Structure formats: structure tokens, C-alpha cells
Amino acid sequence: MICDGEGIETGRYREKEKEMSERVEERLKALGLEIPEASSPAANYVPYVVSGGLIFVSGQLPVEGGEMMYKGRLGDGVSEEEGYEAAKLCGVNILAQVKRALDGDLDRVQRVVRLGGFVASTPEFTAHPRVVNGASDLMVDVFAEKGRHARAAVGVSALPLGVSVEVEALVAFV
Asked: What are the pLDDT tens digits along the chain (174 aa)?
């Protein structure tokens, strides 16, 4: 019997990792999600930084197939439901960056620690938390309890390239 540094039998530990892997892949399939290739940054920054067991993911936009989706402001032509879908798409793009950072292995995610959501909106719009739930709900759907996180949902007057939502993340991994 070979044990790791914490007395766990390596073979059993690997079996458990494999089971967890299959569960995350099953969740993604059940959600009808395919994680795209991670996009490159649009300016002078990196898409993520790995430091001390944490992945700091730069703000992700609602990009699909290379096209900016959900442009405009909440309260002025973009509905709350569209904002939710925009935040969910930002969440998918966060997963793409995390997957790249972890060499394709999302099962190494130990915890989604925090999400920061920015919602382009009119001054009268106040449902920012419900919009950012699009990304939050996705993290819980994909990672179950490990997907529960601290969060901020902030209204802003404008976002890059005219999109309605941007979401950043902090993710712990093993």
C-alpha cells in the first residue's frame, strides 16, 4: 500500500478523484454545456494569474464564438433575463480560463471562493444581484457545494465593448 503525505491510500485517492471527475463531466453534459477554448485578453493584461493555490480570473465578458453577446444596459433595452444569460455566459468563460489554468482538469477545483459581477445599467435599475445570479447559479450547478462563493454585484454606467455584464473570479484548487 502506498500512501500520500496525509495517510490516504494513493490508489483509493485516485479512484475518488476519478469519480469526482466523472461527476463534473456528467454535470456539464447534463447542463448541456460545452466549455469553449479560453479566449485571449483584449488588452495589456493576462486572463488569469495562479498564485498560492488560487486562480485569479480576470473579468470575463459574454463572448460566444468570438462574438460579443448581450450588448447594452439593463433598464435600457436589455432585460433582466438577458442580463442573467449574459452573466451565465461570463461564467462559462470563467470555466474556460480555469480549465486552461488547470491543464484541462476542472476536477482540481477545490472551491469557487468569490465572484465579482459588474452590470451596465441605468441608475434606476436595482436588480444587479438577480442578474449576477446567472454566473453564481452556474458555479453551483457545476461544482455543487464547492461552487458556493462570496460575491459582489455592482452597477456601472458602461462596460468594455458595450457589453451588459462582466464577471471576475477567484478559485481555489488542489
From this structure: 344 444 444 444 444 444 444 577 788 889 999 999 999 988 999 999 999 999 999 999 999 999 999 999 999 999 999 999 999 999 999 999 999 999 999 999 999 999 999 999 999 999 999 999 999 999 999 999 999 999 999 999 999 999 999 999 999 999
| CATH number listed for the domain at residues 31-173 | 3.30.1330.40
Q: Domain spans of the chain?
A: 31-173
Q: Please provide the DSSP assignment of the chain as one string.
A: --B-TTS-BHHHHHHHHHHHHHHHHHHHHHTT--PPPPPPPSSSS-SEEEETTEEEEEEE--EETTEE-SBSEETBEE-HHHHHHHHHHHHHHHHHHHHHHTTT-GGGEEEEEEEEEEEEB-TT---HHHHHHHHHHHHHHHHGGGG--EEEEEEES--GGGBSEEEEEEEEE-
Global confidence as pTM: 0.87
Return the C-alpha cell found at 64: 460566444
